[in-house]
């Protein structure tokens, strides 16, 4: 664009500046608190991470740099520089307001972490495509005037920003298009201001009528996509739930199918009509057992959840009650302590003061004892409860494992039974083949299995082994996972309790220290 | 005058003696106490007693306005009131027979109350006077509603003779109309309503205590003073959950605890005993002071509700005067002679020595209850006792039974008209529990009913009730509670108001503490709810409570003592929940001339905030204290969720000056803080400085708000005073009688309607007008002219009638001709016609025939009516005021 070129040429002649500490410090100092507060600020130095707003315009900056310390920055102005790329803003996650107008930016990028951004200005740059804004879900104001956007499809991209109210695109090639405004009215129905003008409701209606078909189609597509996403989400949640119960993929024929997935011989043999019939019966039975395991697993999961919830509730109640007691004690103490302190302050007799101070410190240590006793008591109580819970949950897990194992044994029995039958059939088929009595045509690779007795027995045996291995694997997986879950849970509970205890003890001692030091200060003050 | 009085007294004395004598006869139905006394009674003692009685003032009203015959307008009563049907006659005979048998068999008992006269002096059997009626109001569906209504609606009239049942028993309709009656009238009405509502209710004729008969509640505790027992619902102790932690071991001695509890219990019991004893003494003393010489002789009538129907779990009595229910064991009910409902009549054959306590209300038991009519629906409850006891009493009852040969004889239906209560009467009696008025006009109420006021005396309490709108300040009820039994020392006064514009509902004045408490309904301009105070002067002890939803600032309570002011808030966006201000003594102003307010200096402001969930606990202030005199500010923050200590911060506001005289802005000891979790940025002086600046502003704001709040209270006080003086009453827009506006509107509407009607009458056609118009205007008619006018008018009318007849005739003929033509055409072309044409022809014919027939009918009718119409007009003309005097001669 002509105008932007002109603007930037002025700065081209000057040496580009580097964003170093000095520039930043200077800017922070200038824009920080003034007068009395300013003096204080100077005394102490302002930390970059406390700065909320920063203005760096007309500095001839080429590269954004050194901003990583400004963690809490909310407003950043970098307009009227010669920046070419958006970069170095990753750490500024609290940013709400970003001004990059009058620069030489060509591509929108590097904004993926700025999830809180509401106002973005890229006015007068060299951008040709609206892109990479997906993370900016809170975006309200977008200024893209005087750029090189020339495709209407860019507008459709903006449909995903539900909060977008103000958009400026003036000075772009697309504004030359006749239907530019109508297109935007129709496709961004929540927009209130376009190019700094309020959108007329009547025009909006007209536009909607005009583009009704295309918008309906768009909506339909969006809707479909949404539905699909939701479905996937629901499925994932369900699977997660089953995984938590350690019985995922057991509510159907997954296990059975997986048994035959790697079993070449087995699937070859199933070509035999008798075998396929047998297989069907076998599959049905197998799946029923799988479903049993599945249901049982879900039920057990429910039980474990309930148990855990009860436990958590009880623990929370106990802690809450203990806290209430602690607070009560402290409140009572503070009330008394305040009175004592003011009495000391007003007292003039040194002896009495000393006596009173001693009394006070005795009170403080008494409070310490009380609080610590409370805490120790709670620790003991919780320990008991935790141990009980541990016992119960382990018992539950053990029982679950036992029952699943017995069900798995049924599976194995079924497999063994099937194996025997299969072997029988295979041998009889072999005999038939040898005798040449076989009626049906067999595929070559199947017939190859029936070369001699050893081959067929081996093949059937191999298939059987694979099946058993699959079943065993599934069982092992379940047992290991539930055991590790159980250990983790118990460990976590213990660890949490220890952490809680430490935190509380630290808190108490900190408080007591503070009280004591306050008293000591008072003493010193009085001695003066 | 004096002589007359003496005479009256003598008569009274004689009456009492007679009563006492009669008491000897009544043995069975009298309680034990009287019997004991009676054993030693001699004639002299009786005379003494008579004299003593003279000195006792009977607490009956001076001259009770009894509904005498002359006030009952019997002319409008229906026939059933004035005569008896055959069946009723029969019933009366049966009753007579029954009565004779009874007096023969039980000569020592008083005659039965069977067939009193009604308002038309016709004897009616008591059961037929009961007319079961279900009232169409939901409030009158339950017994308590009915009882309340009866007691509030009717005014008690004492029995003409307190020892005898009345000679007359009026119908409930008459009683309702006059709104007064004795206990029998009360009970009959109440019983009718209860039976209608499905209760198993009976009227009871028996003996009551003096208090009961005279509606003397002075020994009763006023129901309004009894604080409703707080139904403390024991929270169901949650089942201890599986992992509930065990409580720490209790190391205190259980034995010691038990001993302690025992001691406390003993002390409490003793105290209670003492209290009871004192109370008892009081009561006994009070009772001994005026023993009732006629105890057990006073006739009373009340209602018995038996268990069973309407899910009544236990039988009970209702005293119709007060509408209160009593247990059937109650001491006030001393004996029962008989009871009846709309179906039957039963005599009590049981011993009443021990009041009603031993009575068994098994009406099917013919040994205990002698019935009058057979074939009642009362089931026999105790089957086992029937046989052995039936033998003993056979000789008593058998004869009576035999008389009731006509087993299928059932009670004739009631002679009383439908009992009707107007909604207004109900409205004023039931909804406003404290008011009692006549349905209908206020004036009627004021003239008839003791000036719309009712006073009830209770034990240590007096209850006054007024009709709504009677008092100009809206007072409807006043309860005065006394400290002593003699009702001299006022303990507290409660006044209930209604329809006040300032929404004042209840005023409670505690005499001992002189604490006034006003309660308001929602709708006060300042959203006031409760206002308690000792004096209306500002800066005194005072509590104001507000309807918090009606206030923008969320203030719910405002308390003041001479030195402090406390405000409680709820639901504010800044989470302020409490503000407490301590004032110092007011500085004496030297310039007394200025009338400006001289605010008291504020010493301390304490503000508490509820948790703001949007902020972290460490930054959310829970309490801040501005110690203004010490120039200190204390902050206490909220406690974090799993912590027991909270951060604190204290600012010293003293501005210090360093050695060079420069102002030191901030030093590290200005702010002393304790932080639960030490943070870096709060250590900074800048942060502390900013916080302090912010707090200074807040302090100013708080001061300002406190000042504003004080002003507002002053305003409220002023408003209250104005309201007290003005006491305007609100009138519901639905209250058409009292609402002036709606009355005016209604009247205006009526006027408009009336005018409309007049206009319509005027607008009726003047048949003379066209002829009068031909005459020269403004001149009086001459006789010739009048005759001419008449003739012209009649002639014209005649012509019109003839014209009309001709017109119809012409049409008739035309139609006929056309039909004939068509028929001719048809006959000629019959052969060549298509079926469609034929159909068309046929339909035409039927239509034409129809038209011809109608025309014919019209013509005939016109011929019939025309002469009549002519005559009518002629008559009208003769009567027309404009022509009448001229035409008279011709008539």
TrEMBL record, chain A:
Q: Specify where it is mainly localized.
A: cytoplasm
The record's Gene Ontology cellular component field reads: cilium
Q: Name the domain of life this protein comes from.
A: Eukaryota
Which UniProt key words apply to this protein?
Answer: Cell projection, Cilium, Coiled coil, Cytoplasm, Cytoskeleton, Flagellum, Leucine-rich repeat, Repeat
**What SUPFAM superfamilies does this protein's entry cite?**
L domain-like (SSF52058)
Q: Which portions of this protein are annotated as coiled-coil regions? A: 372-399
Q: Where in the cell is it found?
A: Cytoplasm, Cytoskeleton, Flagellum axoneme
**Would the keyword NADP turn up in this protein's UniProt record?**
no
UniProt keyword Cytoplasm present: yes
Stored InterPro entries: Cilia_flagella_integrity (IPR050576), Leu-rich_rpt (IPR001611), LRR_dom_sf (IPR032675)
Q: Which Pfam families match?
A: LRR_9
Description of how the protein assembles with itself and partners: Component of the nexin-dynein regulatory complex (N-DRC). Interacts with DRC1. Interacts with TCTE1/DRC5. Interacts with DRC7.
The function of this protein is: Component of the nexin-dynein regulatory complex (N-DRC) a key regulator of ciliary/flagellar motility which maintains the alignment and integrity of the distal axoneme and regulates microtubule sliding in motile axonemes.
Q: Family, per the entry?
A: Belongs to the DRC3 family.
PANTHER family documented for this protein: DYNEIN REGULATORY COMPLEX SUBUNIT 3, PROTEIN PHOSPHATASE 1 REGULATORY SUBUNIT SDS22-RELATED
**What name does this protein carry?**
Dynein regulatory complex subunit 3
Q: Which organism is this protein's natural source?
A: Heterocephalus glaber (Naked mole rat)
Which gene is transcribed and translated to give this protein? Answer: Drc3
UniProtKB/TrEMBL annotation, chain B:
| Residue ranges of domain Dynein regulatory complex subunit 7 MORN in the record | 451-732
Region Disordered: start-end pairs: 1-37, 382-409
From the UniProt record, list the coiled-coil ranges: 798-829
- Which residues are in the CEP76/DRC7 peptidase-like domain? 299-372
Matching entries from SUPFAM superfamilies are given as: Cysteine proteinases
Gene Ontology cellular component terms for the protein in this record: motile cilium
Q: Where in the cell is it found?
A: Cytoplasm, Cytoskeleton, Flagellum axoneme
- Top-level lineage group: Eukaryota
User: What ranges does the record list as Basic and acidic residues composition bias?
Assistant: 16-37
Q: Name one GO biological process term.
A: cell differentiation
Q: Which UniProt keywords apply?
A: Cell projection, Cilium, Coiled coil, Cytoplasm, Cytoskeleton, Differentiation, Flagellum, Spermatogenesis
Q: Where is the Dynein regulatory complex subunit 7 C-terminal domain?
A: 779-887
Which residue intervals are annotated with compositional bias (Acidic residues) in the record? Answer: 384-401
Q: How does it assemble?
A: Component of the nexin-dynein regulatory complex (N-DRC). Interacts with TCTE1/DRC5. Interacts with DRC3 and GAS8/DRC4.
Which family does the record claim for this protein? Belongs to the DRC7 family.
Protein name as annotated: Dynein regulatory complex subunit 7
- Its gene name is Drc7
């Amino acid at each position: 664009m002509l105008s932007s070129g002109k603007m930037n040429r002025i700065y081209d002649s000057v040496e580009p500046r580097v964003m170093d500490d000095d520039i930043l410090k200077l800017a922070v100092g200038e824009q920080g608190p003034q007068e009395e507060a300013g003096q204080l600020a100077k005394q102490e130095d302002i930390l970059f991470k406390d700065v909320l707003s920063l203005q760096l315009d007309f500095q001839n900056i080429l590269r954004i740099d050194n901003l990583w310390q400004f963690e809490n920055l909310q407003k950043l102005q970098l307009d009227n520089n010669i920046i070419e790329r958006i970069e170095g803003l990753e750490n500024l996650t609290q940013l709400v307001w970003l001004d990059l107008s009058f620069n030489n930016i060509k591509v929108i990028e590097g904004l993926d972490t700025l999830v809180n951004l509401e106002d973005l200005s890229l006015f007068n740059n060299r951008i040709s495509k609206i892109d990479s804004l997906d993370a900016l879900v809170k975006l309200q104001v977008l200024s893209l005037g005087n750029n090189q956007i020339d495709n209407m499809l860019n507008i459709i991209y903006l449909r995903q920003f539900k909060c977008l109210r103000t958009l400026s695109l003036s000075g772009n090639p697309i504004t030359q298009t006749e239907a530019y405004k109508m297109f935007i009215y129709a496709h961004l129905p929540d927009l209130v201001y376009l190019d700094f003008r309020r959108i007329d409701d009547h025009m909006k209606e007209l536009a909607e009528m005009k583009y009704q078909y295309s918008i309906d189609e768009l909506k339909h597509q969006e809707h479909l996509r949404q539905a699909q996403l939701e479905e996937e989400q629901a499925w994932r949640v369900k699977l997660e739930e089953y995984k938590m119960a350690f019985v995922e993929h057991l509510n159907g024929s997954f296990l059975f199918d997986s048994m035959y997935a790697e079993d070449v011989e087995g699937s070859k043999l199933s070509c035999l009509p008798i075998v396929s019939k047998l297989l069907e019966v076998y599959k049905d039975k197998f799946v029923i057992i799988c479903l049993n395991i599945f249901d049982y697993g879900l039920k057990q999961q429910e039980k474990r959840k309930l148990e855990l919830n009860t436990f958590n509730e009880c623990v929370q109640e106990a802690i809450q009650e203990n806290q209430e007691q602690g607070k009560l004690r402290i409140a009572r103490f503070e009330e008394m302590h305040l009175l004592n302190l003011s009495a000391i302050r007003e007292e003039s007799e040194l002896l009495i003061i000393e006596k009173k101070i001693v009394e006070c410190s005795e009170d403080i240590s008494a409070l310490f004892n009380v609080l610590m006793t409370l805490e120790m008591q709670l620790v003991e109580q919780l320990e008991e409860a935790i141990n009980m819970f541990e016992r119960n949950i382990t018992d539950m897990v053990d029982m679950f494992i036992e029952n699943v194992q017995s069900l798995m044994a049924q599976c194995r029995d079924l497999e063994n039974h099937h194996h025997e039958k299969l072997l029988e059939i295979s041998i009889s088929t072999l005999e038939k083949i040898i005798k040449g009595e076989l009626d049906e045509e067999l595929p070559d690779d199947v017939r190859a299995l029936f070369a001699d007795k050893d081959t067929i027995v081996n093949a059937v045996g191999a298939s059987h082994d694979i099946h058993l291995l699959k079943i065993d694997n599934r069982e092992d997986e379940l047992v290991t996972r539930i055991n590790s879950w159980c250990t983790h849970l118990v460990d976590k509970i213990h660890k949490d309790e220890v952490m809680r205890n430490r935190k509380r003890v630290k808190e108490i001692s900190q408080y007591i220290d503070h009280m004591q030091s306050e008293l000591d200060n008072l003493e010193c003050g009085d001695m003066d | 005058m004096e002589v007359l009085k003496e005479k009256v007294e003598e008569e009274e004395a004689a009456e009492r003696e007679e009563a006492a004598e009669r008491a000897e006869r009544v043995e069975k139905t009298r309680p034990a106490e009287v019997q004991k006394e009676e054993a030693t009674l001699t004639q002299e003692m009786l005379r003494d007693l008579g004299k003593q009685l003279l000195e006792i003032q009977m607490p009956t009203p001076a001259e009770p306005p009894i509904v005498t015959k002359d006030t009952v307008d019997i002319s409008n009563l229906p026939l059933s009131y004035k005569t008896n049907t055959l069946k009723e006659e029969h019933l009366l005979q049966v009753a007579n027979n029954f009565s004779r048998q009874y007096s023969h068999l039980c000569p020592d008992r008083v005659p039965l109350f069977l067939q009193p006269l009604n308002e038309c002096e016709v004897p009616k059997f008591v059961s037929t006077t009961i007319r079961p009626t279900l009232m169409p109001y939901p409030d009158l569906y339950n017994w308590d509603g009915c009882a309340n209504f009866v007691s509030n609606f009717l005014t008690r009239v004492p029995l003409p003779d307190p020892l005898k049942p009345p000679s007359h028993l009026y119908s409930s309709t008459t009683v309702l109309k006059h709104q007064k009656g004795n206990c029998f009238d009360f009970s009959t009405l109440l019983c009718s309503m209860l039976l209608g509502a499905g209760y198993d209710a009976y009227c009871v004729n028996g003996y009551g205590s003096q208090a009961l008969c005279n509606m003397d509640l002075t020994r009763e505790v006023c129901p309004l003073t009894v604080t409703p027992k707080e139904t403390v619902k024991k929270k169901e102790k949650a089942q201890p959950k599986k992992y509930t932690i065990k409580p720490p071991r209790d190391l205190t001695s259980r034995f010691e605890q038990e001993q302690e509890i025992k001691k406390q219990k003993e002390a409490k019991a003793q105290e209670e005993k003492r209290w009871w004893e004192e109370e008892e003494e009081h009561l006994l003393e009070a009772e001994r002071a005026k023993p009732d010489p006629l105890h057990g002789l006073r006739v009373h009538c009340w209602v018995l509700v038996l268990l069973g129907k309407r899910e009544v779990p236990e039988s009970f009595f209702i005293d119709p005067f007060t509408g209160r229910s009593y247990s059937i064991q109650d001491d006030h009910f001393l004996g029962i002679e008989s009871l009846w409902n709309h179906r039957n009549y039963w005599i009590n054959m049981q011993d009443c020595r021990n009041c009603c306590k031993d009575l068994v209300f098994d009406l099917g038991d013919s040994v205990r209850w002698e019935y009058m009519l057979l074939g009642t629906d009362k089931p026999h409850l105790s089957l086992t006792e029937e046989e052995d006891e039936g033998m003993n009493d056979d000789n008593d009852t058998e004869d009576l039974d035999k008389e009731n040969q006509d087993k299928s004889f059932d009670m004739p239906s009631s002679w009383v008209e439908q009992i009707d209560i107007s909604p207004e009467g109900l409205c004023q009696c039931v909804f406003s529990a404290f008011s009692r008025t006549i349905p209908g006009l206020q004036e009627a109420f004021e003239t008839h009913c003791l000036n719309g006021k009712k006073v009830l005396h209770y034990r240590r309490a007096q209850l006054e009730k007024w009709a709504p709108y009677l008092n100009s300040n809206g007072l409807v009820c006043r309860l005065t509670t006394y400290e002593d039994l003699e009702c001299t020392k006022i303990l507290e006064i409660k006044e209930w108001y209604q329809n006040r514009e300032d929404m004042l509902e209840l005023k409670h004045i505690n005499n001992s503490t002189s604490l006034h408490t006003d309660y308001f309904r929602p709708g006060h301009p300042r959203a006031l709810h409760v206002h308690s105070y000792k004096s209306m002067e500002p800066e005194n002890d005072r509590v104001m409570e507000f309807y918090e939803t009606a206030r923008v600032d969320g203030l719910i309570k405002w308390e003041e003592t001479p030195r402090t002011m406390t405000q409680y808030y709820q639901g504010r966006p800044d989470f302020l929940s409490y503000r407490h201000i301590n004032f110092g003594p007011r500085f004496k102003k030297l310039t007394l001339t200025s009338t400006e307010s001289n605010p008291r200096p504020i010493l301390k402001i304490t503000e508490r905030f509820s948790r703001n969930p949007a902020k972290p606990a460490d930054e959310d202030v829970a309490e801040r204290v501005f110690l203004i005199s010490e120039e200190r500010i204390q902050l206490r923050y909220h406690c974090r969720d799993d912590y027991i200590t909270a951060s604190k911060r204290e600012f010293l506001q003293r501005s210090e000056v360093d050695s060079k005289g420069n102002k030191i802005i901030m030093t590290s000891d200005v702010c002393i803080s304790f932080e639960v979790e030490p943070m870096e940025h709060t250590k900074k002086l800048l942060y502390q400085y900013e916080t302090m600046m912010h707090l200074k502003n807040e302090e100013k704001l708080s001061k300002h708000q406190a000042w504003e709040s004080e002003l507002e209270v002053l305003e409220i006080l002023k408003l209250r005073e104005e309201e007290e003086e003005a006491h305007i009453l609100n009138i519901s827009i639905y209250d058409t009688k009292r609402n002036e506006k709606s009355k005016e509107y209604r009247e205006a509407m009526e006027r408009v309607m009336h005018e409309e009607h007049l206009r319509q009458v005027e607008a009726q056609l003047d048949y003379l007008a066209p002829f009068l118009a031909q005459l020269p205007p403004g001149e009086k008619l001459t006789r010739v002219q009048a005759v001419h006018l008449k003739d012209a008018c009649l002639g014209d009318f005649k012509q019109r009638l003839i014209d009309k007849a001709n017109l119809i005739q012409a049409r008739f003929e035309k139609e006929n001709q056309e039909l004939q033509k068509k028929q001719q055409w048809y006959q000629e072309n019959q052969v060549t016609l298509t079926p469609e044409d034929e159909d068309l022809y046929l339909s035409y014919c039927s239509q034409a025939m129809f038209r011809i027939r109608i025309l014919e009918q019209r013509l005939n009718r016109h011929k019939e009516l025309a002469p009549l119409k002519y005559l009518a007009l002629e008559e009208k003309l003769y009567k027309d005021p404009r022509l009448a005097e001229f035409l008279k001669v011709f008539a």
